[in-house]
Write a structure and sequence with these properties.
CATH superfamily of the largest domain: LarA, N-terminal domain
Strand content: 15-25%
Protein name: LarA-like N-terminal domain-containing protein
Strand order of the largest sheet: 12-11-10-9-13-14-1-15
GO molecular function, one term: lactate racemase activity
Largest sheet: 8 strands, mixed
Oligomer: single chain
Helix content: 25-40%
CATH class of the largest domain: Alpha Beta
Low-confidence stretches: none
CATH architecture of the largest domain: 3-Layer(aba) Sandwich
Radius of gyration: 22 Å
Number of strands: 15
InterPro entries: LarA-like_N (IPR018657)
């Protein structure tokens, strides 16, 4: 059972009188590339062409590491890996490679995989989840290299992960195969040790832990995935163990070129309808909100967002509200959806506790939007440079005020409707909702 809290209705009648900016629905143009046309065939090809897989003796037990993120076509990809390994006479099984996610328990991590659609019934291989680890030695900083015991005991290990920017700051290797080896397969103990040193742990210790694991664990193949802004796989590449880190660096540059971004440099108000762990590791991508909010790490130069309002959490995040602290205002519904056990577990592991603080909690979505607008230092509320997005991941359609649309460079945005007023129901719930339009749920 999750651990939740109740919040009072703190009402401010004057917010009802705030004149909100009109909004214009806009389609943004993002780089899309060429999606992989046949996921199954390409995955099988990568496994077949692996020199290390070819060296495995028939009947080898092969662990397939899978993380906690929602990745496009992940069930098809893992199923294809399992099928190809079986064709070659091996015995594959799945291991959760997700650090401390899933509440830091084996049962929780198996449940996370099931929510992603990865079960023995769906992919054709059993799931072996454990929080037990082996130790492969220490880095120069004295950090122990922990590694999933089931994976360590296998004859081979195949890592499957998406390469993407991390949720904190830029560096040559961010989220991808290397991180899954060092942190994901390091389980809760390994994740805590990496995050213990803050930014230094992610930039320096993490690669060193991965090098130790690569030298000691039976890692056979890395499969790196890159998605475009439409959540389509545009790269599906294999990497032998000695090329995993170089592959991460190469594909990270590609991944960043596909990331959806807001083509704005400054806004008075940004309203994010939903945040969640499946959207970003910190609920909302810092490169979209402009808020890294890590002591010692500069926020991005752009966009500069004066006031940020968050309307709710996704159902998929299951109450993990890490990142909610980056908002200035949120709703009572969002605050009461927070599972404090899951959120605090994530925050304590990552050591980035500021992101889990609760912002000002107001009764309704209209209250949050009105408060953000009227505190944004815009001289006239209705003239505020205003932007509303569904999530920081889904940026194909956004809504902007006329004042902000004028600042978007030519060719980067296309208005798809006339200016309109934001509409709300009698409970102050937003009806002019991008989230509803995109996902037909509320």
């Amino acid at each position: 059972m999750g651990q939740h809290a109740s919040f009072p209705d703190v009402e401010f009648p004057h917010l009802a009188d705030v004149r909100l900016p009109n909004v214009i629905p806009v389609r943004l143009n993002h780089r899309l590339g060429t999606p992989v046309s046949d996921i199954d065939r390409r995955t099988r090809q990568v496994v077949r062409e692996s020199r290390q897989v070819a060296r495995l003796a028939p009947g080898s037990r092969v662990a397939i590491g899978v993380g906690s993120r929602g990745i496009a076509s992940i069930v098809r990809i893992v199923t294809a890996v399992v099928s190809e390994l079986k064709t070659q006479g091996h015995a594959p099984f799945i291991v959760p490679a997700m650090g401390s996610h899933g509440g830091g328990t084996a049962e929780g991590q198996e449940a996370v995989l099931a929510k992603l659609g990865i079960t023995e019934a769906s992919v054709g291989a059993p799931v072996h989840a454990t929080m037990d680890v082996v130790e492969y030695g220490k880095t120069a900083e004295g950090i122990e290299c922990k590694f999933d015991r089931h994976a360590a005991d296998a004859d081979g290990i195949i890592i499957v992960n998406r390469i993407k920017s991390h949720t904190t700051f830029d560096r040559p290797i961010e989220s991808g195969l290397t991180k899954m080896i060092a942190v994901g397969l390091g389980k809760a103990e390994g994740a805590r040790r990496v995050h213990k040193l803050g930014p230094r742990g992610l930039s320096e210790v993490l690669p060193n832990l991965a090098r130790i694991a690569l030298a000691n664990a039976p890692i056979t193949l890395g499969i790196g995935l890159v998605e475009n802004a439409n959540k389509e796989i545009v790269h599906l590449d294999g990497a032998d163990p000695d090329q995993i880190m170089a592959t991460d660096e190469r594909l990270l540059k590609e991944a960043k070129s596909y990331l959806p971004r807001l083509p704005i440099t400054q806004a008075d108000v940004l309203i994010v309808e939903r945040s969640g762990k499946e959207i970003s590791g910190t609920g909302m991508d810092f490169a979209v909100t402009g808020r890294t909010d890590i002591r010692g790490i500069d926020n991005p130069a752009t966009p500069f967002i004066h006031k940020l309002g968050l309307l709710n959490l996704t159902k998929e995040t299951a109450g993990n509200a890490v990142g909610i602290g980056m908002a200035d205002f949120t709703t009572r519904a969002a605050a009461e959806a927070v599972d404090f056990k899951a959120t605090y577990m994530n925050a304590l592991t990552a050591t980035l506790v500021d992101k889990s603080r609760i912002p000002i909690v107001l009764p309704t979505e209209r209250d949050v939007i009105a408060a953000a607008v009227t505190t944004s230092w815009s001289l006239n509320d209705e003239d505020a440079r205003f932007c509303m997005i569904s999530t920081t991941l889904h940026l194909d359609r956004i809504m902007v005020s006329p004042a902000l649309l004028d600042d978007i460079p030519d060719g980067m945005a296309e208005p798809i409707g006339p200016p309109q007023e934001l509409q709300f129901d009698d409970q102050g719930r937003l009806l002019t909702s991008l989230w509803q339009q995109q996902f037909e749920t509320y």
